[in-house]
Amino acid sequence: MKGEVTLALTVFCTAIGGTFQYGYNIAIINAPTAHIQRFINDTCWERWFVSLEQNHITLIWTVIVSAFSLGGLVGALLAGPMSVRFGRKGALLLNNCFLFSSALFAVTSRAARSFEMIILSRLLVGINAGVSMNVQPMFFGESAPKHLRGAVTFSSAVFTAFGIMLGQIVGLTEVLGSDSRWPYLLASNALPGLFQVLTLPWFPESPRFLLIDKGDKEACIMALRRLRGCAVSEEEMEEILQEQKQAAGVQACSLWGLLSDRTQRRQLRIIMAAPSAMMLCGNDSIYFYASYIFQQAGIPAGKIQYATIGTGACELTASVVCNLLIERAGRRPLLTGGYALMSCWAVVFTAALCLQGKVPGMPYLSMVCIFAYILSFGMGPAGVTGVLPTELFDHMARPAAYMVAGSLMWLNLFLVGMAFPFIVAGLGQFCFLPFCGVCVVACLFMFWNLPETKGRSLAEITAEFEKRGKAKAEVSEVKGEQGPSNVEEVHQLQSVGSEEEAVDISHVLCEG
Asked: Mind giving me the DSSP string for 40-104?
């Protein structure tokens, strides 16, 4: 019981300053949009006596919003080296330097009359989110016991959803979303970071990092005792020692080293496809339509901000439920099932948008689709994606694997953010069909390529990939052996040149 409490507190103190920040900082930028755009225009007038046109204001606002994604990409690339050099816990604590710098720029931007400081603030907080989104799941996966590994790692998604919902609440006009308080809203992310800095040092470092990277067996055993609340099991210690033996004399895998390693191509394809699909599936874009749909459903304009909180609460509820199911249902069913449901709801949502104003009740059906789409996303892709690099790669390749996954996640988030307005302008009510296609492809890809990893050791998972690779190689070899004989038969038949034998040629080709 004591060990479970220690593990739970470690998870909370890590995540509240980790993936919580990702969700929180995505949400808080929405509320002060109009106030910041007015501030941009006022600043330009004070400097140059120029009143900006709306398209110029929108361009600067787009840069402010996109700076978060670009910062996340930088953070994802920094996460691997930081986690190797400073440890998992050390990297998370050091990561708060970016956060506190960001908060300082945000809170002083209005007094300094500088919207450039807001851009820099969003870039720095993006770096913070990029590092935490990669290092935190790695830390959780290496600290949790095997039977709780999925649930503990999935808690990253729970805290992301919690951050989104809390950001929506704090961004209300009555709280910090007003014209006079928006700098404090953008700087409020420093409080969770301060909490992490004060609490996380009291909890143990990743046991695998202590043994495999530092070679400190005593510290590893001590960390395991604190996290388990009892004596270390021989099976778990043997598994870590086996991983240390395999990593003996081997340096941490670089990004290029992982990309060029042919033995891990199958695993690499999965952790490249999973985060890309998670960002390209349209879950973040569904929020774009939320306010419009709520307005069409008859919700008063002043109350829409409260209804929007329901979308954040919806994703949080789905994440909590999935956290309870992941060790029972497994990773593969939740991931493929989530994308399958999202593709279905995307079709229904498109139909509802097309029939808007023609068939009564369509706004309410659209509302149902919004919540169902978010629920389906939270029940699978939102959390399972972060578990995969921990379970598919060994200790030395894990940081590089998270660099690949994180970089693709942030790059695709940036591309969707930039492209979605053009998709809406070009496709109109059919704008969710491309996202539907992504969900279908992701579902099929994961179904055919991802083995179930629930409750299995790294050695067992690796053996499964090797088994699949050998089976594919044998099939290719059989086809290769059959190929020449068929070609030889064709040449023999062609040498005769009669019309009847031409029919036989077609017969042989069909058999091949």
From this structure: HHHHHHHHHS-PPPHHHHHHHHHHHHHHHHHHHHHHHHHHHHHHHHH-HHHHHHHTHHHHHHHHH
Q: Which residue has the tokens 């920094």?
A: 78
Q: What digits encode the pLDDT tens for the residues 185-222?
A: 999 999 999 999 999 999 999 999 999 989 999 999 99
The crossing angle, in degrees rounded to 10, of helices 149-170 and 116-143 is 150
Q: Residue 81 and residue 99: Cα distance in Å, rounded?
A: 19
Q: Hey, what are 294's tokens? A: 């709520």
State the residue for tokens 């992982």.
258
pTM of the model: 0.85
Instruction: State phi, psi for 145 to the nearest 5 degrees.
Output: -65, 160
- Of the candidates 385, 376, 311, which has an alpha carbon nearest to the alpha carbon of residue 156? 385
Task: Name the residue among 127, 121, 132 with its Cα closest to residue 184.
Answer: 121
Cα gap 111→234, rounded to integer Å: 60
3-state SS, one letter per residue, for 137-187: HHHHHHHCCHHHHHHHHHHHHHHHHHHHHHHHHHCCCCCCCCCCCHHHHHH
Q: pLDDT tens-digit profile of 385-418?
A: 988 998 999 888 999 999 999 999 999 988 887 8
Helix (H, G, I), strand (E, B) or coil at 121: helix
What is the full DSSP assignment across 387-401?
HHHHHHS-TTTHHHH
pLDDT tens for each residue of 287-333: 766 777 787 777 787 788 888 898 899 989 999 988 888 888 889 99
Residues 6+ apart with CB under 8 A from 224: 207, 232, 236, 237
Token pair 């490249």: residue: 272
Q: Do the beta carbons of residue 382 and residue 305 sit within 8 Å?
A: no
CA pair distance 309, 485, nearest whole angstrom: 66
**Which residues, at least 6 apart from 182, have a Cβ–Cβ distance to it below 8 Å?**
31, 32, 35, 36, 110, 176
In contact, 20 and 156? CB cutoff 8 Å: no
For residue 39, the SS3 value is helix
Residue 70, C-beta contacts closer than 8 angstroms, at least 6 positions apart: 123, 126, 410, 414
pLDDT above 70: residue 507: no
Question: Which DSSP helix (H) or strand (E) runs through 227?
Answer: helix 217-228
* HSE, side-chain direction, 13 A CA sphere, residue 119: 13
